[in-house]
Specification:
7-stranded mixed sheet; about 30% helix; 3-stranded antiparallel sheet; Nucleotidyltransferase, domain 5; 11 helices; alpha+beta; about 20% strand; about 400 residues; globular
């Protein structure tokens, strides 16, 4: 059956069907050459039929399945992603035709946002997790770069919500974009425009996931293996009668409360524990920078578990996984269909998900005494824009995350 994914309304010029990659035909030649006589031969891919990896961005989750059974996979993709909301999350920050926005042949850049939106949040929501996912034109590698939430940034004017523009912490861009009816789509659009103005990077797609969605996905997987590098006491949760509860809920019980402490070491974590640990910043040596690495570690752990558990090759498991994320996820795949994006990224594996650090993993304060991106970090984003990130990382190994 054809993919039944709801595409978001286009904000840019419509693209002729011939300009899109079709997952039912031979994959297009990669930009930069690999046709006969145009350079070195392609690297041989593994032929194990179990590496047909489905790439679906579940918030900040990158998961893979293979092209070996791509026809069947397309049908599964359609069933699994049918309940995922697709909206225009990029606005004017989407790639132009000149930047390769009309094809999936070149590098692919996506914006991943994590938000903590509870029932009483209204439109007072900021982006707690801001991650740029870069996939080079070779489509066999993936990089995650987290932007510190407190980074000083100029947030452009956003007339649709009445925001006049100004300098603020970057996580406020989401808040200013969603106010006055802008919703999550408006929040993501303004965030994408802010990042583009600051780094020069335009995007092929975006995803937003409520943190509650991470817990649902991990619960669907069972557990994930997380390595705690610094013991930290939870700022958000307490035990009551041995049961973990949000602080506000725990206080309502009137019963004795015991701190939730994440002790050093590697272990399998349930959804609530993995999510709570990845959200901690108070009590960590480098605060939000350590939290960024912990969140990246969580994403990689979820990808590994999804593959090792067979969720990517078992239709029932995959459907369960997508249903877990569906009601807390908003996705924008730009001009491409989900199935086309999946087919294009079939060479990315969990072992090639590389986590990078901004500002060398610690604070960089500007002349105003505010957090900012260092010159080296801005150079890293320039390498993203020019699809030279692998060369940049080779020359600057200190940007690699210390998490496994």
């Amino acid at each position: 059956m054809p993919v039944q994914s709801r595409r978001r309304p286009p904000s840019r010029e419509p693209v002729p069907s011939a300009g899109r990659v079709s997952a039912s035909v031979v994959p297009p030649p990669r930009r930069g050459g690999s046709r006969a006589g145009d350079g070195p031969p392609k690297r041989k891919r593994r032929k194990d039929p179990l590496w047909a990896r489905l790439t679906v961005v579940v918030g900040a989750v990158l998961m893979m399945t293979s092209g070996a059974a791509i026809v069947g996979s397309k049908a599964i993709i359609g069933q699994a992603t049918g309940n995922i909301s697709q909206q225009n999350l990029l606005g004017d920050a989407g790639k132009t035709d000149a930047e390769g926005g009309d094809t999936l042949e070149g590098p692919i850049d996506m914006l991943l946002l994590g938000v903590d939106a509870r029932a009483n949040s209204g439109d007072d929501v900021r982006a707690d997790s801001i991650i740029v996912l870069h996939i080079p034109a070779t489509h066999d590698q993936a990089y995650l770069i987290s932007i510190p939430r407190d980074t000083e940034a100029y947030i452009p004017a956003f007339p649709k919500t009445g925001f006049d523009g100004g300098t603020e912490k970057i996580n406020a861009a989401f808040q200013f974009g969603m106010r006055n009816g802008g919703g999550w789509a408006g929040g993501a659009q303004l965030m994408a425009q802010t990042i583009k103005k600051m780094t020069g990077v335009s995007f092929d797609g975006a995803a937003i996931i409520n943190f509650g969605g991470f817990k649902k996905v991990i619960d669907a997987l069972g557990t994930v293996r997380i390595c705690v590098t610094q013991e930290v006491t939870s700022y958000h949760m307490k035990y009551v009668d041995g049961k973990p509860m949000w602080n506000a809920e725990a206080r309502k019980t009137g019963k004795p409360m015991k701190p939730v402490v994440h002790k050093k070491g590697c272990r399998e974590m349930e959804g609530w524990e993995a999510l709570d640990y990845s959200r901690q910043r108070y009590g960590l040596k480098n605060s939000d920078y350590d939290r960024q690495q912990n969140q990246q570690q969580l994403i990689k752990a979820m990808a590994k578990k999804a593959i090792s558990d067979g969720a990517m090759t078992n239709p029932l498991k995959l459907k369960k996984l997508m249903e877990a994320a569906g009601d807390t996820l908003v996705l924008d795949t730009g001009r491409a269909d989900v199935a086309d994006l999946v087919f294009t990224l079939r060479g990315v594996t969990d072992n090639e998900l590389t986590m990078l650090r901004t500002n060398n993993g610690t604070y960089h304060v500007n002349e105003h005494g505010r957090e900012s991106l260092s010159p080296l970090t801005l150079d890293m984003f320039q390498a993203v824009k020019n699809d030279k990130l692998s060369e940049f990382v080779f020359a600057n190994p200190g940007v690699l995350s210390t998490r496994k």
